[in-house]
Sequence to fold (147 residues):
Amino acid sequence: MSTTTPRALEGIVQGLHHVAIAVRDLDEARKAYEGALGLAASEPEFVPDQKVRVLVLYAGTQRIELVEPASPDSPITRFLETRGPGIHHIAWKVADCARAIAAAKQKGLRMIDDAPRPGSHHTTIAFVHPKATGGVLMELVEDPPHK
Fold:
């Protein structure tokens, strides 16, 4: 089993940040993840830029994000209409989102975001286009500085 970073992301990625799962109903999905599986949950957060509600769940240090559309024009609404509930994207931890975008573009990756934007829980994010990664939507995530 290989534990190396994908070649196109070498020098950019520090590790897996989270896996995002698109859901129709955050409260209903929470019952399975928090209730039945026993994952620890944060409070849901509204992310205006993406028009979604996000619930972060933890299994030890592993992070899962449940993402619910908060508007009919949310990208998650369109995803659910075409693909149904399920894995939406994989997010990679990066030290500096702006530098990660530049490095990804230099390596030939097509980006959805050419500049960092706000994400949930005070993160800075950018999305890599799924056409550049074999059909998988990927997110670059810079955590906020620790206070």
